[in-house]
Write a structure and sequence with these properties.
Blueprint (H helix, E strand, L loop, with lengths): L1 E5 L4 H12 L4 E5 L14 E5 L5 H10 L2 E6 L5 H6 L1 H21 L4 E7 L25 H20 L2 E7 L1 E3 L10 H10 L4 E5 L4 E6 H13 L9 E3 L3 E4 H11 L5 E6 L10 H7 L6 H15 L6
Parallel strand pairs: 1-2, 1-4, 2-3, 4-5, 5-6, 6-10, 7-9, 8-12
Antiparallel strand pairs: 9-11
Bound molecules: nicotinamide-adenine-dinucleotide (NAD).
Length: 312
């Protein structure tokens, strides 16, 4: 019996894998471009299968060959890449996501947990000042946002039509070492570069609000839903949430730990929503966000430890 993590050697997937291995689960990482760096230190405890979700037979074989009982799906073409290559995005994000649901249906996989995104909510101006819950409407404006909204619709369809346990986790923006891709990679750079005494330029206005969650917290959210008893999970859609901060506020927190951190900002505005309620996830699974100050410190020290530098 094993848990198949699709996109399991990516930024978030590898963290989930590590946490599940620590819980003594058998983990199989299925990935189109396995990244050994992300699983360094536990590569001997994880089976890595190279595969592509756009080929349903590869997903079926991975399930069959490994006695898979649960799937966590993270594979998706990210926001900027989806705009640059919309055809590939449709293949991976629409057909590929459906292949995972369909393969799980055919093979009677017990549970699927997969990643959606707050981009499905669309621009924050559409929602006013309110703190967004899972019941608020979606107004996506990008290829990626629409495809996340479609994946949520299809997850609910498979749940309702076939009685499958498919849980959606809407992720905000995860910061942590190793993240280089995605439209919001700067949320990682703002901590990882000062940790190495390198300057960092954030293209956003310093007054822009953003929702920050450490990659460790995001991974924990997936583990909580993956491992919960079915009766605990009262919903099929959960916000992971995050801390709302301006760039200035995050820079201030970083300078409390690294006083001479060189952080500059640009003048770009982003559309992302930034006030997210995650009460559902907390109530059903006991999920708790790590306080921002602690999350930043953990992130900085992880980067410094890796380079053999003294901790802050
Ligand atoms: N990182 C964030 O802040 C964030 C925010 C919101 C939502 N998400 C969602 O979380 C998920 C994981 O994000 P991440 O930051 O870890 O991204 P990532 O790019 O680091 O990881 C995705 C992994 O999926 C693999 N993959 C891509 N296409 C594939 C395919 N066709 N078949 C098999 N594997 C494939 C990639 O090789 C990669 O290892 C994505 O669905 C993303 O949309 C992430």
């Amino acid at each position: 019996m094993s848990i198949l993590i699709i996109g399991g050697t990516g930024f978030i997937g590898a963290r989930i894998a590590k946490k599940l291995i620590d819980l003594e689960e058998q983990v199989v990482a299925f990935d189109a471009s396995p990244n050994q760096d992300f699983i360094k230190g536990y590569e001997d405890k994880i089976k890595v299968v190279r595969g592509d979700i756009t080929a349903i037979e590869q997903v079926l074989n991975a399930i069959k060959d490994n006695g898979v009982t649960k799937i966590i799906n993270l594979a998706f073409v990210l926001e900027i890449e989806s705009m640059m290559n919309p055809h590939l995005a449709v293949k991976v994000n629409c057909l590929g996501t459906n292949n995972v649901f369909e393969a799980a249906r055919i093979m009677n996989v017990k549970r699927i947990v997969y990643a959606s995104s707050i981009t499905a909510y669309g621009p924050h101006q559409k929602h006013g000042d309110k703190v967004l819950t899972e019941d608020d409407p979606l107004y996506p404006i990008t290829v990626y946002g629409y495809q996340k909204a479609l994946s949520e619709f299809m997850a609910k369809y498979y749940h309702d039509a076939y009685g499958m346990e498919i849980y959606t986790l809407r992720v905000g923006s995860a910061f942590g070492p190793g993240r280089t891709g995605g439209s919001t990679a700067f949320v990682s750079n703002i901590t990882t570069l000062p940790a190495l005494r390198q300057p960092v330029h954030i293209p956003l206005k310093s007054s822009t609000n953003f929702v920050y969650s450490s990659v460790d917290d995001v991974a924990q959210a997936f583990v909580n839903v993956c491992q919960a008893e079915a009766k605990q999970l009262q919903h099929i859609l959960y916000n992971v949430g995050g801390h709302t901060h301006t760039g200035d506020e995050v820079a201030e927190r970083i300078r409390e730990l690294i006083p001479d951190a060189r952080i500059t900002f640009g003048d770009i505005d982003v559309y992302y929503v930034f006030r997210i309620d995650n009460k559902r996830l907390s109530e059903d699974t006991g999920f708790k966000l790590t306080p921002m100050r602690e999350g930043i410190k953990n992130n900085i020290n992880e980067v410094r430890k890796e380079k053999g530098l003294p901790l802050v």
